[in-house]
Amino acid sequence: MSRVLVPQQPPAHRWISAERADDVAITQAIADQLFTGFGKRWWLALLATLPFVLWLLVAIVWLFYRGIGIWGINSTIVWGVAIANYVWWIGIGNAGTLISAMLLLTRQRWRASINRFAEAMTLFAVAIAGLMPIIHLGQPIYAYWLAPYPNTMALWPQWRSALVWDFWAIVSYLLFSILFWYVSLIPDLATMRDRAPWRGAQLVYGAFALGWRGSAREWSRLQTLHSTMAALGVPLVCSVHSIVGLDFAASLMPGWQESIFPPYFVVGAMYSGFAMVVVLAAGIRWGLGLQAIITPRHFDAMARILLMASIVMFYSYATEWFMGWYGGEHADRAFVRFEFAGTYAPLYWALLTCNCLVPQLLWWPFARRSLPVLILVAIAINIGMWLERILIVWNTLSHGYMPSLWHSFHFTFWDWSFLIAPLGFFAFLFLLFMRLIPSVSMFDMRELAHEEAAA
Length: 455
Fold this sequence. Notes:
By secondary structure, the protein is mainly α. It has 15 helices and no strands.
């Protein structure tokens, strides 16, 4: 693997750690690897993810054959790992587009190093998230009933159902994310078309480049469209996870009926998504040799955002505890006690440790710029956010109004399957993305290099 940009110490520019980063060097550093091959490391990683893909397929086939009774759900805890996974994956998915759009609107130029793979992360995560409610249906063959379609019985979806809200939220967000990602990809596809050594690659990249020639008129229209989509994307992203929060808040169950849930879910999505971006950025930086493009300053910036989000999350938890006590309802107070001392108390304390305590390491600069420490913190945050999602389901459903209905959830092998196998499937899709599409936006990086040189 050729490394055209050699990182310098100390960095020559703020966001590009190379002494000289002209357009050709940046293009070669990112594009040429797609044609020269990634070597053994990429193939080994891809082979390592294949068993997880097969595991997921087997789990889905077995679920369709035997039904959702293979999970640990019961008559009280009717939601389980599948719904927790859905909320967790949709949170991861929300972050990519939200990060890219918000950084674009606020003119944060360092987004150029992370926006492309963060948006790709969104596509894969939302696709996996969309799978979870479908497999949770008792009869997934009728999943299309969630969409309005012409039929002789004049039947329409039940708009008061949270499942229908989720359907529209996921579909609209997935379509928007694909368009937002694709629009920013067009100039790079044209670059790949022009540099591809094989006729087949030239035709494929050329077809998706839509005849891009890089004229001033095309650039002007692209930037206008991209900025407009970013402005539309931010409220859309917020609405998607707000709807997920409303799925719970619209009920009458203690622990769910809270007005803070929609903003709380949005912040949580950004929190877990940014943590996943940190992990992916570290992997891409190491795997593709992009140390000069994804610099310690990028990780420092992302660590600061994680630290801010951890404080907001702790505030949200504290608000939840306060409102449970201040409301005066016996069920709400009993619910808060159950969180701290009930069946799942060890998991709840682990949640607080991962989401609130561990990220406090990021107050120190050495932790923000130490990749091993930052990766461990990011992984801890993702574990903590998954625990939060599963405990939102378990704590409320296992400790509702009627003590006679109090039951616990117990994992089965198939619960673990739908927790672990999608992670491998996500890694499989991401590795394919790295092989086919430039993982970092070339035209954004070239523009950034010019600005850095002029500064």
